[in-house]
Amino acid sequence: MDQKKKKVIIIVCAAVLAALIAAFVVIFVVARPSAQAGSKAYTFTVVDDQSNEKVYTGKTDAEYLSGIMDELAAEGDFSYEGETGEFGLTIYTVNGLNADYNTGNAYWAVYVNGDYGLYGADQQPVADGDSYMLKYETF
Amino acid sequence: MAESIQTKNNKPAFSARDIAYMAIMVVLLEAGKIALDWAPNIELVSFMLIMFTLYFGWKVIPVVLVFATIECLRFGFGPWTLTYYYLWGILVAAVMLTKKTGRSFGKHSVWFFSILSAVFGLLFGAFSAIYTLFFGGFKVMVSWWIAGIVFDLIHCVSNFVICAVLFVPVDKLFSKIRFQ
Question: Which residue in the set B104, B123, B146 is minimally distant from A31, CB to CB?
Fold first, then answer.
């Protein structure tokens, strides 16, 4: 095979490879799995000691309610403080309002879809479309 | 009575030497695979299979099957390990089909086979994704493939570089071993 023909074959092969790489890059850029706001819609409500409600809505990939709370805290319009102990996360302060049952007669209750929550915030699974509430309650 | 695998003209399909070579090939593939297991999509198996196929032809197919089985034993008989049964066979077939073109340069062309290796690396994810067609359908297959394109690009570049660097010395070595 003459030198010229050899060169042509290699150039054609290289061009095919380059075209394939370019096509793959374009396909990836156009159709890659993009980071989304989250796949599960939620409503999160904080009810303070005056029964004022503050409602947060959004989408999340968080596994547990505490994940949503962390995301909201990172956004800046929500804050909470608590302690993780034997029974999971105990919330003492939400948006600056303290409800520590150790020192007073109030606590932050977790509600899920209107019902009293069975788990702490760090153990409450997040499901698409659920609504969660942190409510200041007294005893 | 023990029977050997024989061809139509009553000659054994594999000579004792072939079988010894095949065993060595399996060992080399496995050693190469383990040596770079830590590096995602950078592997020596493609390069070695190209070289083996150039010198041993279709006799590499049983080698590939044994290699795939060892991989299944190492990692379990999961979907991705089962793909090894056909993935590497595709590379062997591609080399066999293009062998003539690759040789028409007077000797094996390093650039031709480096490009072939790169194309195989690039299409590796697409070939691997085929099995998902049976589990999740066409959409799952396409999304599975697209999600791994970055790794395919790494595979493409690494296959090209490995083949370009190692081809000439290994080709010389193989021609000595095979034809001495």
Answer: B146
